[in-house]
Write a structure and sequence with these properties.
Chain lengths: 293, 485
């Protein structure tokens, strides 16, 4: 698999943003690195990573962020990394890269190797050396991390749980369950009705699972320390555009979809949000959108 | 982390009481059979969105002049396409108000002239049908079915909805003219907040005019995407008055039809449910490339047609009645589309009210919840090798002194690990075994003996550099007591 020729990376749109265009042999993945067939012919249309670049620009870390993407892609090869943009109250709080290894061979994706790879650009606090049957791990970073002013944490995902690594210790973090939203709806409802943050008699399930996200690829219900979460995989571009608008992503991110109308119709996206409702009616807090490079 | 104060839209208290059991509805023994599922074999031809009434919940009110209608020429060109009318036995003319079209008779005559067409239907408010000469001209041209909107049981409610004083009397005169002419009358009543409590009274008002069928369509929120206009009635609240109206129909021998209302809430009256919609000429045009071209050359298809409300049901994956809705807005006949998306966004999925007819057993939680189904299994052999290599700074595919580590092969009994390196010029295999002082080994570390094999054409200096680097890496990270993976 060849790396993207450098010449392809310097194309810019009218905002001056770096634009990457799809090549014939591109692969497309959802946020659990499941491969999908693009919805429309893709050659020369935009890769999803361009939205990530737009979010870096929004936070004033265009060159640091883009450099990190290229660096990771050089180390792992293309189409192996999932990215996420995180927002809270309409502001980007940071990003996350996810590294999947369902075969759990942990060869070139071993956490220690990748921490070494990331080291010149991100300081990562993880010294877990035990053999663990993880299928995924992720590293979170913010503009401060990209400027090496802070240390990034690592989350390790084993079966349905995640643990946060602090040095060599691991603290339990979240529980995730994945569902076919249509066939497995009873399990989804059970998971939501047993959440301390959702009250069936109080909260509007239609706002939590909007009909335009319901027919997604797979739904994920998460229980977290201070919130619960819902994720919707493989949604088409119009739904992704609606999601970033309704969840009040920064204007420049929302605008990205309108600016590149017709160049994104081949893509599927993944989105998610946290919700809190333990003390008062449910509110949606963090929201995120995912793609891959 | 601080939590946003952002509120979810339109939070409303949900009803948690389940709807009355379906078994509490009793169907009279002589209940009529369900009417023909006319949508299956009908083609809808849309006229201009103009009307002489202004029903409060009608989508046309939002899009007056958005669509100039299908020209007769376009209709002709469409009908001339091979296969365009396959399976079609009825042409339905709809608007706006079709009787406002000056050349309606020409459309009817042309429709009647098409082979296979047995019925021509007008969807109309019937205001103009009171003009008996006009009605006769329609009938003479070949229109035999009159599908009349009828939304109120008395002048007060009716005129409030149509926003035209006197319209109740006008429409009654129209349907009386249809009855007297011996033509087929079908009425259509929207289920909306303004009339929901009078549905059975509407049946009583209409039944003397001998309708062949009465249809009840739940409010269809085209152009009311946020369900803000107050026309929707919660399905749990509409259920009882609707059931009373349906029973009033069947008791009078009138076969009713219900659309866009959850089939599961109708009990035995579910046999009268049909969410099927006729194919529209515009919709079919989009699927027949040649016909589409012909249509586009004649008349632009307005964006408005893209704004059809979607339908969905939270139980559509498990309910036997559910439609798969592969084509937006056109559920298969006999299938249930669920609820309108604007309704769901505003009032929720009604998950506690709906009563899905389950076609599959409740999912086994273990079947799909985990991405990794063998969570109990520990690391694979390759994983263990990778961790072992990592201790010494190596990984599969790593570059070392101009060579690439192309394969790492352990034995099952942990007695040997072979590291195969390749470069453009040659290859080297380093074999690592547990330390055994009873034999000679070229390199020995606290835990291991290292052997190597250099390919014939491999430059000696390059091979030596590689072996030295590998040996040093292992030596310096081997505290003793290590085992092979
Ligand atoms: S699809 Fe939904 S609304 Fe329709 S019958 Fe089934 S559960 Fe009821």
């Amino acid at each position: 698999m060849s790396l993207l020729p450098a010449s392809k990376l310097v194309l810019k749109d009218r905002t001056g943003q770096t634009l990457e265009r799809c090549e014939d042999g591109d692969l497309f993945h959802d946020y659990v690195l499941g491969q999908y067939t693009p919805l429309a012919p893709h050659t020369n249309k935009l890769r999803s990573v361009n939205l990530l670049y737009r979010s870096f620009a929004e936070c004033g870390v265009s060159s640091e962020g883009t450099h990190l993407v290229h660096h990771v892609r050089n180390a792992l090869g293309p189409f192996r990394t999932v990215w996420g943009i995180k927002t809270l109250a309409g502001k980007i709080t940071g990003w996350e890269f996810y590294f999947y290894d369902f075969a759990r061979t942990h060869a070139d994706l071993s956490i220690s190797r990748m921490c070494g790879v990331l080291a010149p650009l991100l300081t990562v606090d993880c010294a877990v050396s035990r053999e663990l049957p993880w299928h995924m791990w992720s590293v979170e970073f913010s503009p401060q991390h990209l400027q090496k002013k802070a240390t990034s944490a690592v989350d390790i995902y084993i079966d349905m749980r995640s643990y946060k690594a602090h040095g060599s210790t691991l603290a339990f973090e979240n529980v995730y369950t994945f569902h076919d939203s249509r066939k497995d709806i009873d399990a989804v409802l059970h998971r939501l009705r047993s959440s301390v943050h959702f009250d069936d008699a109080r909260d509007n399930l239609g706002a939590l699972i909007p009909p335009w996200l319901f027919r997604c690829g797979r739904m994920c219900v998460a229980n977290k320390r201070r919130a619960d979460g819902l994720y919707f995989s493989r949604i088409a571009t119009p739904a992704a555009q609606r999601f970033v608008a309704e969840r009040a992503f920064p204007e420049s991110v929302v605008r990205f979809f309108a600016e590149h109308r017709g160049e994104l119709d081949h893509l599927l996206w993944d989105v998610g949000f946290d919700f809190v409702g333990d003390t008062e009616p449910l509110v949606i807090t963090k929201a995120s959108i995912y793609g891959s490079f | 982390m601080a939590l946003s104060s952002e509120k979810m839209p339109a939070l409303r208290t949900l009803k948690t009481e389940p709807a009355p059991a379906a078994s509490s509805v009793h169907l009279p023994e002589n209940a009529p059979a369900p009417p023909e599922r006319w949508a299956e074999n009908s083609l809808l031809v849309a006229f201009s969105f103009r009307c002489n009434l202004a029903c409060t919940f009608c989508m046309v009110e939002d899009v007056l002049h958005a669509f100039e209608g299908t020209t007769l020429e376009t209709f002709r060109r469409f009908a001339a396409q091979p296969g365009a009318l396959d399976g079609i036995r009825r042409i339905v003319f709809s608007g706006g108000e079709v009787t406002l079209a000056k050349n309606l008779l020409e459309y009817i005559e042309f429709a009647r002239s098409l082979s296979g067409i047995e019925h021509v239907r007008l969807q109309t408010n019937a205001v103009r049908l009171a003009d008996k000469a006009y009605l006769k001209s329609l009938a003479d041209a070949g229109c035999d079915e009159y599908f009349v909107s009828f939304h109120g049981h008395n002048a007060q409610v009716f005129d409030l909805i149509t926003q035209k004083k006197g319209s109740f009397e006008e429409v009654l005169s129209g349907i009386e003219a249809v009855r007297q002419a011996g033509l087929t009358l079908i009425t259509n009543t929207a289920i909306a907040a303004q009339n929901v409590n009078h549905l059975a009274e509407i049946v009583k008002t209409v039944s003397p005019f001998a309708p062949a069928s009465m249809e009840f369509w739940n409010y269809w929120p085209r152009a009311d995407e946020k369900a803000e206009r107050g026309h929707f009635v919660r399905v749990g609240d509409a259920r009882q008055p609707l059931i009373e109206a349906l029973l009033a129909c069947v008791e009078r021998g009138i076969a009713p039809t219900v659309k866009w209302f959850p089939k599961c809430l109708l009990g035995p009256l579910a046999m009268y449910h049909d969410d099927g919609q006729p194919k529209s000429l515009i919709e079919l045009s989009a699927r027949l490339p040649d016909a589409k071209k012909a249509f586009l050359e004649g008349d632009p298809i307005p964006d408005y047609f893209e704004r059809e409300p979607g339908y969905a049901c939270i139980y559509e994956g498990v309910c036997e009645h559910a439609d798969n809705l592969s084509e937006k807005g056109t559920p298969a006949s006999g299938r249930c589309a669920g609820l309108a998306e604007p309704y769901i966004s505003r009032f929720g999925w009604e998950a506690n009210t709906l009563q899905p007819k389950r076609k599959v057993a409740v999912a086994d939680y273990d079947s799909t919840m985990s991405l990794v189904r063998d969570a109990g299994e520990k690391r694979s052999s390759a994983g263990k090798v990778a961790v072992w290599l990592d201790r010494f700074g190596f990984s599969q595919g790593a570059r070392v002194e101009g060579f690439t580590l192309v394969s790492v092969t352990p034995t099952q009994d942990k007695s040997l690990l072979s590291l195969a390196f390749q470069s453009v010029g040659g290859n080297v295999v380093v074999r690592i075994a547990p330390k055994n002082e009873s034999r000679r080994a070229p390199v020995r570390t606290p835990s291991f003996d290292l052997f190597y094999n250099v390919g014939d054409r491999t430059p000696k200096e390059a091979a030596s550099a590689l072996i030295r680097t590998v040996a040093l890496a292992i030596q310096s990270n081997d505290p003793g007591q290590l085992t092979l993976p």
